Amino acid sequence: MQKSLITTLIATAIFSAAPSFAAEKTNMMIMDAWVRAAPPSAKVQAAFFTVMNHSNKPIVITDVEAQGFGRSELHLSAKKDGMMTMQKQQQVTIPASTIFQFKPGSYHVMLLEPNKIAAPGELVNVSFTLLNGEKISAEMPVKRDNSKNKMDHSNMNHGNMDHSDMKHN
Ligand SMILES: [Cu+2]
Predict the structure, then answer these.
(1) Can you give the pLDDT of all 169 residues of the chain as single tens digits?
(2) Rounded CA gap, 169 and 166, in Å?
(3) Which residues, by Cβ under 5 Å, contact ligand 1, an ion?
């Protein structure tokens, strides 16, 4: 009895933002999430993850917020006139039955106005709002970006492609 009451309360809390016509919970999973470690003096951090849309309908992410950050945005990195730039996205659509990657050089979540830059080993709670009003959240561990790809990439391009040109729009 006690347990089922608690379960009900939790369920109510989770779904309170969803409109009543949302009969079924969105079948979306967030996997392999991480927040890129940054120096304590940094002004922003980026979060990357994989979204699995297990449903036969597109899922539209319309907003994002993160604990410990004043503001968060959906971003897309793109090359423009030979420079990497980032554009804020009003929404990101995950097509039906698709595995969709938020990854360096592409879609990512930008964490802005940090209370304090999150350090390696810490968890950042990131919460997504969907077009149907539902909220889905994930704990994203902070990790140093020491992937082989990135190291190879920076070695290869050293001198002829300056990543510090990364613009924040
Ligand atoms: Cu960004």
Answers:
(1) 455 555 555 554 444 444 444 456 778 999 999 999 999 999 999 999 999 999 999 999 999 999 999 999 999 998 888 898 999 999 999 999 999 999 999 999 999 999 999 999 999 999 999 999 999 999 999 999 876 544 443 333 333 333 444 444 4
(2) 10
(3) 75, 86, 110
Determine if the pTM surpasses 0.85: no
In angstroms, what is the span from residue 84 Cα to ligand 1's centroid? 10
- Compute, in angstroms, the gap from residue 1 CA to the centroid of ligand 1: 47
39, amino acid identity: P
Cα 77 to averaged position of ligand 1 atoms, centre (Å): 7
Q: In the CATH scheme, what is the code of domain 2-145? A: 2.60.40.1890
Q: How does DSSP assign 124-161, residue by residue?
A: EEEEEEETTS-EEEEEEEEE----HHHHHHHHHHTTT-
Nearest alpha carbon to residue 36 among 110, 137, 93: 110
For residue 12, how far is its CA from the centre of ligand 1 (angstroms)? Answer: 33
Structure tokens at 6: 């608690």
